[in-house]
């Protein structure tokens, strides 16, 4: 909540107006500066929390973006406001001679690796949570999984994601205490990234899943979407590397989003590409486990037009 309060305070100064807050401090509404709408209820919506944190959209002129950084640039916000934004969200602000802003992502300062044994209660609690989810010691080492005892991400498992060069590009923070009303928190950065990219072999089938624990369960070339929408960077990579098969593994509640992902891949593809839409019933990959999930994936068939129509009728 402290981060949201800081963001709202900063946004009020940048927008030169006070926010109308909705949905328990998770959305801030402003009069849009791009179309100068002056409705009784402001129509520029900014998401402050959750998988779409940082995204913004005007319901009048359809101006939109996925990051607060992009909004600040579009508003030509002064440098000190950008620096304050990066300080709140965990970016490091730098300038070179061409005044290009570079973002260096870092894990929370309270992050502790679970590869390093500890006798603390929180270490034991975090370790127990992972073993209950069938996460192995090898998984912990391979993915650099850790936890936080204190701070904004206290009592949460931290699962980092790294790009093809091994640089941190995102992380997911899962509550293991049962005390938080939010099971997941995501790093406050743009989601136009490829999750677990450092581990992806584009010459092999790629499996798209919702979260990091689903990806850890599937293991084989699994990419977490950190939600149910498909990043543009991922769509471009599928075309660039000529991927021949994509498995979309989302739970039943996300069927519409899975169909949307299918349509977007279809729109962009320039190579022969088999798309498998895999439904797991009432259980997600992390519950079914590695062997069962991969057995289902292996035995699945490419999505045909008739199947697609049948699924769309169900929506």
Summarize this, please?
With 315 residues, this protein is α+β, with helices and mostly antiparallel strands. It contains 11 helices and 16 strands.
Features:
315 residues; alpha+beta; DNA Primase, Chain A; DNA primase DNAg catalytic core, N-terminal domain; Dna Topoisomerase Vi A Subunit, Chain: A, domain 2; 3 domains; five-stranded antiparallel sheet; 11 helices; 33% helix; 19% strand; globular
Unreliable runs: 93-102
What is the helical fraction, as a range of percent?
Answer: 25-40%
* Distance N to C terminus: 35 Å
Number of domains: 3
Arithmetic mean pLDDT: 83
Major β-sheet, in short? 5 strands, antiparallel
Structural class: alpha+beta
Q: Could you say what the CATH architecture of the largest domain is? A: 3-Layer(aba) Sandwich
- For the secondary structure, the number of strands is 16
- What order do the strands of the largest sheet run in, or round the barrel if closed? 1-2-3-4-5
SSE pattern, N- to C-terminal: HEEEEEHHEEEHHEEEEEHEHEHEHHH
Q: Which CATH class of the largest domain?
A: Alpha Beta
CATH topology annotation of the largest domain: Dna Topoisomerase Vi A Subunit, Chain: A, domain 2
Whole-number radius of gyration? 21 Å
- Shape verdict: globular
Percent in strands:
15-25%
User: What is the count of DSSP helices, taking H or I runs of 4+ residues?
Assistant: 11
């Amino acid at each position: 909540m402290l981060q949201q309060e800081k963001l709202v305070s900063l946004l009020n100064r940048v927008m030169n107006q006070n926010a109308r807050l909705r949905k328990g401090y998770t959305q801030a509404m402003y009069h849009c500066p791009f179309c100068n709408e002056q409705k009784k209820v402001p129509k520029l919506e900014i998401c402050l929390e959750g998988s779409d944190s940082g995204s913004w959209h005007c319901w009048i002129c359809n101006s939109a973006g996925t990051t607060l950084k992009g909004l600040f640039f579009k508003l030509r916000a002064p440098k000190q406001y950008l620096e304050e934004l990066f300080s709140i969200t965990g970016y490091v602000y730098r300038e070179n001679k061409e005044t290009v802003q570079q973002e260096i992502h870092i894990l929370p300062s309270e992050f502790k690796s679970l590869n390093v044994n500890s006798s603390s209660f929180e270490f034991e609690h975090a370790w127990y949570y992972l073993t209950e989810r069938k996460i192995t010691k090898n998984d912990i080492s391979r993915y650099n999984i850790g936890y936080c005892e204190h701070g904004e991400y206290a009592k949460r498992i931290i699962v980092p994601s790294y790009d093809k060069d091994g640089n941190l590009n995102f992380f997911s923070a899962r509550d293991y205490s049962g005390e938080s009303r939010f099971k997941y928190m995501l790093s406050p950065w743009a989601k136009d990234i490829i999750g677990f990219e450092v581990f992806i072999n584009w010459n092999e089938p790629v499996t798209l899943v919702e979260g990091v624990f689903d990806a850890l369960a599937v293991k084989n070339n699994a990419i977490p979407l950190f939600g149910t929408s498909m990043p543009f960077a991922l769509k471009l990579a599928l075309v660039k590397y000529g991927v021949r098969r994509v498995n979309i593994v989302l739970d039943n509640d996300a069927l519409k989003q899975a169909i949307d992902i299918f349509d977007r891949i279809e729109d962009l593809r320039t190579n022969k590409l088999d798309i498998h839409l895999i439904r797991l019933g009432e259980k997600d990959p992390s519950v079914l486990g590695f062997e069962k999930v991969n057995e289902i994936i292996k035995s699945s068939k490419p999505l045909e037009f008739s199947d697609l129509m049948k699924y769309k009728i169900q929506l």
